[in-house]
Amino acid sequence: MCIRDRLQAERDQGSGVATKATVQWAKTAEVNLKRTPGASGERRMDAHRNELLGEVFEVFDLSKEDGEADGISLDELWELGQARRELGQKKGAFTQKMAARLMERVGVGENGNITRNQFVSYFAANLPLDVAEFDRSVVNFKECALACVRKRQQAVKPEPEAEPEPEPEPEPEPETEPEPEA
What we know:
The chain is an all-alpha fold. The protein has seven helices and no strands. The radius of gyration is 33 Å and the shape is rod-shaped. The chain starts with a helix and ends in a 26-residue tail after the last helix.
């Protein structure tokens, strides 16, 4: 029975006023309906969230810059967590141990790294439902990944080769006057 029908049935049976219990049930059901995948418009919202989180995963998979694209490793996750703090997105320290615990919560694939599906599932369930807050988190995540990529590029950027100094031209030998013949 939908919310509207239940409230109307109760009104029809009694004094025309819904009981407090039914009103509370209706409010709870409405909130749950908004959070339930498949509810009106929610499929589009879930698909949009998943798409954005997939984009975040792609930029978080820092090793793909090296041609590996094998998911997010513990070191990459730690590096990303450090960058979030450096950018002021998060406060406090982010240790290797904290990164390992987060990896356990997210889950890892056969190679020990976080896969795209695991990443999307975890963050879809754990980031704010509010669209503006969610979008802000996505922007922050992307900024963080971009900062990591730049840092890596600077670390491997070869120093420009100095042009070899031209060799000095040999000094001309002093001309000597021929000695008169005797």
